UniProtKB/TrEMBL annotation, chains A, B:
Belongs to the acyl-CoA oxidase family. Keywords: FAD, Flavoprotein, Oxidoreductase. Residues 329-488 form the Acyl-CoA oxidase C-alpha1 domain. This is Acyl-CoA dehydrogenase family protein. Residues 703-733 are annotated as: Disordered. The keyword Oxidoreductase applies. Its cofactor is FAD. Residues 703-712 have a biased composition (Basic and acidic residues). Residues 550-692 form the Acyl-CoA oxidase C-terminal domain. Residues 184-293 form the Acyl-CoA oxidase/dehydrogenase middle domain. InterPro entries: ACOX_C_alpha1, Acyl-CoA_Oxase/DH_mid-dom, Acyl-CoA_Oxase/DH_mid-dom_sf, Acyl-CoA_oxidase, Acyl-CoA_oxidase_C, AcylCo_DH-like_C, AcylCoA_DH/oxidase_NM_dom_sf.
Amino acid sequence: MTHTVDTKNSDGSRRADDAVEAAAIESELDASARVAKKPGAGDSRRASTNDVVVARTDVERLGQYLLGTWADVRLAARELTARPELQRIDGLTLDEHRQRVFGQLKLLVENGQVHRAFPSSLGGEDDHGGNIAGFEELVTADPSLQIKSGVQWGLFGAAVLHLGTAYHHETFLPGIMSLDVPGAFAMTETGHGSDVAAIGTTATYDEATQEFVIHTPFRGAWKDYLGNAAVHGTAAVVFAQLITRDVDHGVHAFYVPLRDETGAFLPGIGGEDDGLKGGLNGIDNGRLHFDQVRIPRQNLLNRYGDVAEDGSYHSVIESPGRRFFTMLGTLVQGRVSLDGASVAAAKIALTIAVTYGNERRQFTAGSDTDEEVLLDYQLHQKRLMPKLATTYAASFAHEQLLTKFDEVFSGASDTDEDRQDLETLAAALKPLSTWHALDTLQEAREACGGAGFLAENRLVGLRADLDVYATFEGDNHVLLQLVAKRLLSDYSRRFAKADFGVLARYAVEQARGRTVNGTGLRSLAQTVADFGSTARSVGQLRDAAAQRQLLTDRVETMVAEVAAKLRPASKLSKKDAADLFNLHQSEIIEAARAHAELLQWEAFTEAIEGASGIAAGLDDGTRVVLTWLRDLFGLGLIEKHLAWYLMNGRLSPKRAQAVGLYTERLSARLRPHAQDLVRAFGYGPEHVRAAIATGAEKARQTEARDYYRAQRESGTAPVSEKAAAKKPAATRA
Amino acid sequence: MTHTVDTKNSDGSRRADDAVEAAAIESELDASARVAKKPGAGDSRRASTNDVVVARTDVERLGQYLLGTWADVRLAARELTARPELQRIDGLTLDEHRQRVFGQLKLLVENGQVHRAFPSSLGGEDDHGGNIAGFEELVTADPSLQIKSGVQWGLFGAAVLHLGTAYHHETFLPGIMSLDVPGAFAMTETGHGSDVAAIGTTATYDEATQEFVIHTPFRGAWKDYLGNAAVHGTAAVVFAQLITRDVDHGVHAFYVPLRDETGAFLPGIGGEDDGLKGGLNGIDNGRLHFDQVRIPRQNLLNRYGDVAEDGSYHSVIESPGRRFFTMLGTLVQGRVSLDGASVAAAKIALTIAVTYGNERRQFTAGSDTDEEVLLDYQLHQKRLMPKLATTYAASFAHEQLLTKFDEVFSGASDTDEDRQDLETLAAALKPLSTWHALDTLQEAREACGGAGFLAENRLVGLRADLDVYATFEGDNHVLLQLVAKRLLSDYSRRFAKADFGVLARYAVEQARGRTVNGTGLRSLAQTVADFGSTARSVGQLRDAAAQRQLLTDRVETMVAEVAAKLRPASKLSKKDAADLFNLHQSEIIEAARAHAELLQWEAFTEAIEGASGIAAGLDDGTRVVLTWLRDLFGLGLIEKHLAWYLMNGRLSPKRAQAVGLYTERLSARLRPHAQDLVRAFGYGPEHVRAAIATGAEKARQTEARDYYRAQRESGTAPVSEKAAAKKPAATRA
């Protein structure tokens, strides 16, 4: 049964194939160094596409580019986070850490770091984008500091600002801004996290006294996981079902004092400490419950719904559902800032791992004396370089999100559509960046071996702190489901009047006009009309249009397929419809993830192709490096989903194999630029603060080398047993 | 350009296809419930394969089965770990935690828990397998306790036992066993972890005084990350280059006293505390360095190499390389016990997440009052059920590893070949199980939302502690590379005399006799002669032979391909050969991973098919459940590597799509058995110790339901705004 083949030939030609393939890829990479010379619009240098550009990174200019629109705010914040008194000290007790971070909040107030988003009439700056940019940078000092200030000013304060009206602003904001009134954001309950609409706490209006009665009807309705609740909070914004005249108007927010000057709970209020957590232990998370606690009618934050003295309810938004989502939507900034902070943490992780990987040596390869630097190993490149590419993609995508956020909240571009787009964009990007940060921190920690496990090298602490980013401010899977619902409703709205069967295949079969996911999120109008369903050459893979085509096609096809599968739901009972949806839940979420990945890819591509501002100022060498990095990101996504492309006939098996080879070569090409690419993140030793990323390892390597060299030169080096065994034999001969 | 097709038909038939596919899968699953009736050899019930067996789990019997050969030892250890004084307390300071764990070590001594592996002449039991089984269970009390006792008796003590001879046993072991002499295992250096052969510490023999001089020549040669080194260790086994008569005989182990009775370092010895770590903070890891420290000649642990008074060196093993690997090989038990402890941690994680997922409700689906239990969501099943399947696979695989370990160390089956097989098996399984534990703990933590982040629910603490398991006792990637090298050398040895080109394709093209990876590791003789290169039906996928074929084929093909690519290395310079190896490093490691996955799959399959002992006693219902679980594991592996199967023509696109559908349905089928499957792990509340896995959530849900029901029944429930708005309209009509 054993097959005998003409082996020399078959074996030889296979290796020849490999070599041809590899050569083709290298030549394509050279080609990309030529076409990457993409000058600004109207620049006549465009003609000379045959010049080979030497790939090199202009670290300073790229660094400036990465700082983005709010560069000055970020630089100011980094000056602050460079101060030891704002930085985390490992090994503090729970109480010490909590007190330290609380004290740091006061330092932030003193330094004017946290009032940017508030009205200028109250001493703020009405600067919404800058405010978030500044907050995000705090993560490098101590994530507890970032999140605790986020609780105070981004949640508690922002709820008063965005859900309250003039009375609340004037009455409550000054104390919140100055930290005289530390407060909790009491939304989540033990029994309800992501499903906010179902919380159990009630706020029942009592006409007789013109008060609301805040009440916790059962244990599951205790407010839980609230920062500032265990110790420091003296007030809270409490979310509760507003009931007046026996009608439940849904979830509204109320300003509720919690503790007196001595720190004791006010009558009717109780709570518990959440105790030690997996991270973020500088924050005093805790539980709260209310036993018929009375607050004045005016403490209802009444921007979107109000109760008159007589108990009648009024709202500017008629639909209870839309009203609820509008209220929640004002709090989107939490997700925006987690997205940015996650990117910052990934940058720190890679700065540490790449620096160490460039210094640390292990195992000799081809020499008896010199060991290889870790980053010269293919596997080490494979572990770190794609993470670097994704971090750049996430960084550029975050800048777009932050810009969108600023446009909406500054009022520059604030329609319902804009708000929905912003929320969907945040819901798409936050899951990817928070998971990416965890994956990157873990890979970096493992890539640094035992040293990575020491607290002094930062990685484990950052990972522990960022762990919860994946589930707070919206569980990542729930957020992706929101995105998917938006994609599906965009899809069906766009084709509401067309025959559905056509539409289910619309995105699959059409060759241009791919605008399915476009509503506000991203215009996918650009497609390649003459691009077939199977990529035909290695070269096509590195073409941006080809990557876009492959990534876009996948999103559109998945959305169309899911839409077709869910179509019968409209004719089913509520229960059966829910079952049908559940039967496709994984696909739905996978479609959302694909969409979010595409958004990151588009942001990266726009950043390279940008023809104005700093982008236009990027030199050709930097553009080559960035283009390779973008290709590594794009082809990495295609590689990750390779089975899909193969099953759906989008890539031939042969082309599919080229994808993996391509990303491997890209990683190798980018390897000499790794250190520059992390230097461009702009974090100095005062932000990185990892013993293994200080050059100490290099110094140790040098000392060891010098020792062995001196030993050899002086003739005092012992000979190896093997050499000693040979010697007499040689002598005999 | 828009394609118009007969939509009703095309849409309709697509859904019909889906339905047919789904029905086919369900029917296959029913079929597996029939054929799963696999009785013991010679059992006449075999005939009645048409009876449908009701899938149900005999928790008690399955639990007994999972306990394995050393069930009694495990149960005794679990009784011990149920005692609060042996359990971790969260939030202790570094010093408190270290002292507590040190105290717990004494309790273990008092309870006779840790001497099983030592000679009966010294009060031990010569029970090697049982010893490891007992150690592994300690992880549920506190991973620091497991690892700290591992350092004392599994590394420090085991080095004296296995590398020393009678003098050392009699002189040093009693103090080690009683913990009178806590000690460090000083192998790793700051500059060298995985590459032990390259350590810098020297032990130079001085004929004049008949002493060895232990010396640290440079900073990179400081011993590092050593448990017991920072505080408690009064002695150490130090690994150093043995130099005598100007010849370096390579790495040997020496018994070196470290501290005096006051805890102060002895002259010439210094050190540093490694400080806080990402986890395992109950262990005092630290650094040591030696400045010309003199120890008696007799302190060389001389089982495999000795120096006579006159400085002449003698060894029973002539080759320095083989001698080195033999010495290291005696310390394989660290890897074995990490494998087992990781499995135990994954079991705890799933017990918590499944229990909570079965109680916690979120979002209504199809009803206005009842929310869904988390585990009823498809995505939640998809997140947890495959992890459950892998945990079972890893558990059965570990039992095989432990048995192999016991056979070798008890001397029952202790050839060079056996030792090599044991080392390769440990190197294959430890990476997979340690990573699996981390992935499972993380998925469980996220699946429990904010509650998962609280220390009181155990998941974050366990994850933090187990993090380093991925890189200590052999970095996972380095271990997989060892496995790959073994696979490659087995491959080339087997075909040493055959023409290589044929052989490169041997495994790919032959239809039977697949024994490539068989050398001692696992006999892959069983193949399906008439099984084509493309699976032809859904039914074939759930056939064990088909799964084995697909998994085996992948390992063999990858090994053969890599071997072909590396073949030119023998004709290249050392440097070029290393470069060639590096160019294929990722593939090499991927082949090893595939091999390890196959080993897990085979272990799972053997556990189901076992015809003797407890396996034979498993009832048919349990066997059905286990078979589904094994299929989920096997098909899950194929799904994970689907791109490979497609690119290499092993699965058609259509069949490939069926794989994903199949694993989804399997998860759904297994969902009702999830609680039983975690109960069978046998960990009680005293081991699980997670607030959310105590039934508290269920009680909260019940209370909330009762509250709403009572409100509805009494007519005091407020009506929703939507309902209130409809009411007047209805009245008007």
